[in-house]
Amino acid sequence: MRGFSVKKAIENAEEFAMAFLLAFMTLLTFVQVLLRYVFNSGWVWSLEATTYSFAALVLVGMSYGVRTQSHIAVDLVTRRLPPKLRHVAAIAAVAFCLLYCAMMFYGSALFVDRLAALGNDARDIPVAKWILTLVMPLGFALLSYRFLVAGWHVLKGTDDDMEYHEHGEHDIAESDLRRLADSEDEQS
Questions:
Q1: What is the chain's Cα-based Rg?
Q2: pLDDT tens figures, 83-114
Q3: For residue 159, how many C-alpha atoms fall within 13 Å in the half-sphere facing its CB?
Q4: Cα–Cα distances in Å, from 61 out to 13, 105, 132, 165?
Q5: What are 5-63's pLDDT values in tens digits?
Q6: How far are the Cα atoms of 12, 82, 182, 184, 186 from residue 2, in angstroms, in the given order?
Q7: How open is the CA angle 118-122-127, to the nearest 5 degrees?
Q8: pLDDT tens readout for residues 135-163
Q9: Among 27, 68, 82, 148, which lies 20 to 30 A Cα-Cα from 16?
Q10: Per-residue DSSP letters for the chain?
């Protein structure tokens, strides 16, 4: 039996959050449309809840895209570079992404802090607005973690050019290798 893995826990939480948020938004929007057009009624807070949920989904989805390498890759120039320069370009790309994440984390943390100091509630949801916007610094922290992992792979030479792979290709290959290793361990 394998032990607890922080990496796997983060991956599972990330995937659960995306699935939950997408299902919540879809169900809430469906019910709201049904209430509005069939019963001439509705919930005042549903639009705001959907908006905050969508923002959280985007922030968590960015890190998922980095983990699965499913973001759009613009590599017209870097593919033509020699391997050493391609490696340097990948390191520079990761460094710029981490710089962006640091600035966004700092700015969003200041934003959340100021909202907490003001003590305002959300417009239609009876929750402090800073709690609903806390996903911004958390999302950029998660994205930073993903870029740190990607940068580590680039530095180690296991992913020199951060090239595009089909969605989930690495996850499938890694899980297949783990299953194979586990079955060999059980047979021993």
A1: 21
A2: 888 888 889 999 999 999 999 999 999 999 99
A3: 21
A4: 12, 16, 17, 17
A5: 888 999 999 999 999 999 999 999 999 999 999 999 999 999 999 999 999 999 999 99
A6: 16, 41, 9, 14, 12
A7: 90
A8: 999 999 999 999 999 899 888 887 655 55
A9: 148
A10: -----HHHHHHHHHHHHHHHHHHHHHHHHHHHHHHHHHSS---TTHHHHHHHHHHHHHHHHHHHHHHHT-S----TTGGGS-HHHHHHHHHHHHHHHHHHHHHHHHHHHHHHHHHHHHTPBPSSSSSBHHHHHTHHHHHHHHHHHHHHHHHHHHHHTSSTT-----TTHHHHHHHHHHHHHHHHHHH-
User: What count of residues does the chain have?
Assistant: 188
Token pair in block for residue 65:
């895209």
